[in-house]
Amino acid sequence: MLSKHRVVDLLPTKHGHFIGGMYVDPRGAEVYTNIAPAYDMPLGDVAVGTADDVQVAVDAAKAALAGPWGRTTPSERAKVLRRVAELLLEHRQAFARLEALDSGKPYSEAYEGDIARSAYNFQFFADLTAHQVSPSYTSDDGTLHTTLREPIGIVGLITPWNLPLYLATWKLAPALAQGNAVILKPAELTPLTAMAMGNVFNAAGLPPGVVNIIQGFGAGGAGEALVKHPDVKAISFTGETTTGEAIMRAAAPQLKKLSFELGGKGATVIFADADLDQAVATAARAAFRNQGQICLAGSRLIVERSVAPQVIDQLLVAVRSIKIGDPLDPMTTMGSLVSRDHRDKVEKYAAYAKSCPGVEILCGGKIPSDYRQGAYFEPTVVTGVAQESRLIQEEVFGPVLTVQVFDSADEAQNMVNGTPYGLSCSVFTRDINKAQNFARSARMGLVWLNTWFSRDLHTAFGGMKRSGIGREGGQYSLDFFSEFKTISMAMRPY
Ligand code: NAP
Question: Terminal CA-to-CA distance of the chain, rounded, Å?
């Protein structure tokens, strides 16, 4: 039985890997220092995983699949996953604190959002897998055909830093529900909550080796070794589009099954007939939640000309009410960015905006004067940006919102679709026909009408264009983590 804070207390300040149900030292000696970005404070040394560590994890996963886990039924697996969800909720405060320290996000957001939703991922996929049925069909000659699902075997999960535990569990839960063994490589900037999950999996009774967690770097390190390992049969990856390209190249010689959730450049469209109070409040949340570091962020506001002055005024009021601060302070609504390097990247985009003729920075655009320590950046609103500008075409992945003005629905649609990405957009209007036409023409995997970030786990999640390949969510996730086998049986004629 884990005591209330033991999940976190058990974590050493030197982090190796979690393999075969144990926290183990890495094969090599190299470590890097993990930093709490809000305080520039070291959180301990983390192992730089290598191909040797990946091999140990593969061996542990193979042993787990050859043991009782390989013979579990969906309802047996569902029981373990439900226990994982319960334990996560029991330790919600400890996990939220760890996530806030590691990533710089507000504790309240981690508690209400990331950790609660992580627990729900396990609950949801436990229920879904327990209720799956295999489709059967009798052909004209009387043969009975049944398509069965089998585990793929060992799957690799590679995750980013922006929603560390939420996105890891979004992959772990369906992969385990389908009976696979997994090797997770969390982002190097946010290794801690994934690491703490080792204790939870053990306490929930998951057999050793079913989940293995390798820390370290992606390119040239543990991530790449995982992608290239011949016994890792599928890779589910969330991260940058260019990393997806590299993973696809590395996986190509072995024809691995791949699922990619990649970058986004989301838009919020406000028509003049919208409920402007609701639309502006949502647009501000869409742009600045999690310091703008969400693939689904509405980082482009596209507003009808007749209401643009009013929308901008209201927006600036909303932005001024954002409380930048210590992630552990309950009043904080905007924490630190994930690292100083990332903050520097965002600052460069702000500097670029300042250098562009016609572009005006309405607020922010700089490091807050009270926060020289940490990786803070002010919520920033920019107008006068041309569609072809880097500020519109590239993913800034920080608290920078561009505002563009349109005169017709077609023009707004062209702006929304006019980037290489195709993940998400929100449209605000009271005209149901206009909303539906817009939704049908958007080249986006997710379209929200009069809302944002409304996610139901049953539905398909993923992007078009350079935002991804494949879909996750509900049955789509279970399908990805399954091998299908059709068995056809001759039946005795009547
Ligand atoms: P990233 O740099 O692509 O890294 C993601 C993960 O891939 C990290 O664990 C990283 O390790 C690893 N990695 C890097 N290069 C690799 C390689 N060659 N082979 C194997 N693994 C490799 O992304 P990020 O900066 O962490 O996350 C931000 C990005 O994620 C944004 O583009 C955002 O839009 C996207 N995202 C998309 C979604 C979605 O659902 N579409 C959701 C969230 C985030 P290191 O940490 O060591 O680099």
Answer: 58
